[in-house]
Write a structure and sequence with these properties.
Strand content: under 5%
Number of helices: 1
Order of helices and strands: H
Distance between the termini: 44 Å
Shape: rod-shaped
Helix content: over 70%
């Protein structure tokens, strides 16, 4: 359970970071 929760948390953090990068980098 703990490992699965850790993996899910890591996955969502990576996803959030990618979304933030997309938002922070404007398309030219």
């Amino acid at each position: 359970f703990l490992a699965a929760k850790s993996e899910a948390d890591h996955y969502y953090r990576e996803l959030k970071r990618e979304q933030e990068e997309i938002i922070n980098v404007p398309e030219t």
